[in-house]
Amino acid sequence: MVEIYVLRLGHRPGRDKRVTTHVGLVARSFGANGIVIGDVVDESVARSLRKVVDLWGGPFEVIMGVNSVEYVKKWKSRGIVVHLTMYGLHVDNVIDEIRGSGKDLLVVVGAEKVPRIFYELADYNVAIGHQPHSEVAALAVFLDRYYKGEELHRKFSGAKLTVVPTPRGKKVLRIGDRESRERGAQGGQAR
Fold first, then answer.
1. Is 3 among the annotated ligand-binding positions?
2. What is the chain's Cα-based Rg?
3. What is the pLDDT of residue 113?
4. Where S-adenosyl-L-methionine is bound, by residue (predicted)?
């Protein structure tokens, strides 16, 4: 089975906590196996993501502080490197080829200006669109196209919480908690 990791480049701990956390949340919920925060350690982002995994299930790995260039170079012996950039080839023109390779993927997502070496090291520079856009949105669209929407039906192992879809309101059940299941079955909100 193909493994997909997301490498977050250029994370600035004092400025990017929320966006990097959202990159991690999208990576997890849209089918990636983990996030790699390159070149820095930010325990607050790691704690937030690990808490989500603890409550909502996994597996999902959080790796920090690796040398981004070296990590990409090493990954190339394992699989494909996809750099998401508005300057790349349109996703619709390359997604079948990427998916068809059957190789593990490292999806590179930048925060600030991405150094030229990542454009050169990438096997694919992929654009979701050729206009300025959010890296969070680009990652979501890429993973959704890669998995053809199947990732949205994924069940996460080890989850303590699960959402019960409702037309209005919110219903969250604790898995394994009989009282919550019974309240949920009766239409009450369980937390």
1. no
2. 18
3. 87
4. 84, 110-114
114 is in an annotated binding site: yes
What is residue 49's predicted lDDT score, i.e. its pLDDT? 98
Q: Residue 110, annotated ligand binder?
A: yes
pLDDT at 182 over 60: no
Question: 4-153: which CATH architecture?
Answer: 3-Layer(aba) Sandwich (3.40)
Number of C-beta neighbours around residue 50 at 10 A = 16
113 is in an annotated binding site: yes
pLDDT mean over 50-58: 97
Helix (H) or strand (E) holding 119: helix 116-121
Which part of the chain is CATH 3.40.1280.10? 4-153
pLDDT computed for residue 177 by the predictor: 61
Q: How far apart are CA 77 and CA 117, in angstroms?
A: 17
Q: Please indicate if the annotation marks 100 as binding a ligand.
A: no
pLDDT at 79: 98
User: CA dist 33 to 2, 58, 117, 176, 179, Å?
Assistant: 9, 8, 25, 25, 32
Verify cis geometry, omega within 30 degrees of 0, for the bond prior to 167: no
Q: Check if the beta carbon of residue 123 is closer than 8 Å to that of residue 84.
A: no
Structure tokens of 78? 């394992």
Residues whose CB falls within 8 Å of the CB of residue 68, separated by 6 or more in sequence, listed in order:
7, 9, 38, 39, 118
Q: Which two tokens stand for residue 100?
A: 């068809």
